[in-house]
Design the sequence.
């Protein structure tokens, strides 16, 4: 079942994002991935914070493209 608790990760303060990045980098373990990516919207700042502290580059997994008058679509 879904939790009744909702946490909005989209607008976290920079200091908190930095702390999350440090913890995520410490949790990585022995393997080292080539790149990391965050799920848009809320996951991208977390991936960037992780990247800054782990030295692993980030990669955008969805790009934006024009799909019509005033509409933007996502593609992979």
Sequence:
């Amino acid at each position: 079942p879904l939790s009744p608790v909702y946490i909005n990760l989209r607008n976290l303060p920079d200091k908190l994002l930095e702390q999350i990045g440090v913890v995520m980098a410490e949790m990585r373990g022995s393997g080292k991935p080539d790149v990391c990516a965050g799920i848009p919207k809320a996951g991208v700042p977390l991936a960037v914070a992780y990247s800054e502290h782990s030295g692993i580059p980030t990669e955008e997994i969805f790009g934006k493209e024009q799909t019509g008058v005033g509409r933007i679509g996502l593609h992979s």
